[in-house]
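Hey team,

Filing this mostly as a record. A colleague (T.K.) asked me to run one chain through the structure pipeline before their review meeting, and I want the input and output archived in the tracker in case anyone asks later how it was produced. No errors, nothing strange. Just documentation.

Input sequence:
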Amino acid sequence: MTSQKKFIHWCLLIVFPLLICSQISFAGLKTKWGKVDKKYLRMTAFAPDTNAAAVKIFDIGDLEIVVSRRFELYFERHYQIKILKDAGKKYADIAIPYWHKDKIVSLKAHTILPSGKKHKVKKKQIFDEEKKGNFRVKKVTFPQVVPGAIIEIRYKLHSDYITNLEPWVFHDEIPVLESRVELKMLPGFTYNVKVGNDPYHLVKKSEEQYSTISSGKPSITKKFVYTAKDLPALKYEPYISTMENYRARVDFLILSYRDPYTNYEFAKDRQTLVNELLEGTHKNFLKPTNEVKDLVADIIGDEPVRRIQIKLIFEYARDNFDEEMSYSAGAYVRRNQKDVIKDKKATNSERNMFMLSMLRAAGFKAEPLLISTWENGWIDPVFPFLTQFNRSIVAIKMGSRFQFLDASKKLGTMHNLPAEDLTFRGLLLKKDAAKIVRIPNKGIKSMETVHSVVDLNSDGSLSGKTTLTSVGYAAFNRSIELQKEKAVSDFITEQISGDIEGFEVLECDSLLKPVPSDTLETQFQFKTGEVAEIIDDEIYLQPLLYFVQNENLFKSEKRYFPVEFGYLAKWVELNSINLPTNFEVLELPEAAMVNCEFFTYRYTIMKTPGNERQLTATRFLKLKKEFIPASDYHRLRNYWSRIVDGDQQKLILQKLPN
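Output structure:
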């Protein structure tokens, strides 16, 4: 149970006079405890996915909201998992997170061996583990878990919080044979039910209604059934922001309850929640204190250029506060302006809200903007809860457009948001005028060029000099890599040269440091081992050094998720290759070009004009789309294989006759 469900508190201990107990519920669980189909006991492998270490046989939920003197939530879940391989044993270590005020009122679990023998989970194998913040985790360890066994668990949770119910998630990281949820809705409740993350329409919905008694009167009850079968395992693929965006799910939002005696609103509209936030934790940062005004006056001094003033304020917020990670506040803040100055510490959101105060002190029209970063997943505009967001950043009105600022990265600059912020849209916080705004992500955001002059030696080795220039996100990423290495030579060897055989740095800029900059440039001299293959009197050389694709990035034949590059990027490699004195060109690689809707790729190699003993190899790759839907994956994969084919071509030299 997440903080999204808990953050907004309300009083449910209201006595409803003359209210007759009523409820909404999922239909009771129809799976019998301990019953297993013999075919699953005999199962030794899962034919549709032979790599699967385990399979979830079924996953059924039951949810009931009871209305008497207060609203109470009872959630019951029952599932079985077949362990197929040793690697699947980890699925027998169950962790059930829940809010600290909730209670798990019942739990039973056992292991069923292939023979049918059952081993009950004992009390000592069930224990609570504290987590940071207001969460606990119920841990369950199953006995006698071996490949072929089936684990089964059933538990019930009680809560006094029902405003934002936890979604029912159908997918798992292992295959799921069946996942089902049934919702019974009695009169009196207004609600919103939404199926999400289901581009392949795996979730099937059915509906029926029947007569019942509610508040002492005949009424019609509706039952909604959501079922998904034969769900593939959610496996990580390259270029995925977060798997949470692709787990098929159904969300439930209880809006209100009304009967002849009661009128109760559960969910507030988004603008009301925004106004409460602006009058709550964010309020202190909206009006700069005198101390902040004095600080800003010192920072900007006599600087007249407004963009430079923004830069100075941004850099102060970025550089002068230690990162606070001791509590999880997401987009919310705990400190105020005075605390941030005093503690010299701030969460990402507090750092940005303090920057907002400084910008307002300098006379800028700055507003808070709530975003959900890549790892947090996409927001759903249908649901009003602000806890979908996990970071507060700043929006400055510059003419008719906004400039967005996030000072949370120590190596970041004001010109580029952290890449994790590029999640399509955010929520602009303004009293009585909140709105969803688009976060722009157009144009090339990252560019990297390597230019090398190398000598190809007759023994197949190379020696030469390379200049690396990184711009935008490429510069940020290289600075992060540089920060991780002990020496610049290690950075070049480990992060740039890749798998070049026998690569050795002979000379480099030892003073190169990771600094916040939109450009990183460095030069180094190097030598390699015998990277070229020598057969008789011929040398076979792959002319590309750094950006070569040895295999297709996209290995899976089928992909269920989009490809998310995140932003548009460009890579250029230019190599001037001096030939050994006693060799001549026998065969040049053919020019290769791919110009599709996803990217442009060009690769050429030719004799350098004016220098018969030198060849110039040029490779160019530019992304055209940062987001490619799964329906286009097959075409993207085929096009990308042509990059590999082009990069793998060999230059062939032959020895000159004596």
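Quick notes for T.K.: The domain at 444-655 is CATH 2.60.120.1130 (Jelly Rolls). The longest helix spans residues 633-647.
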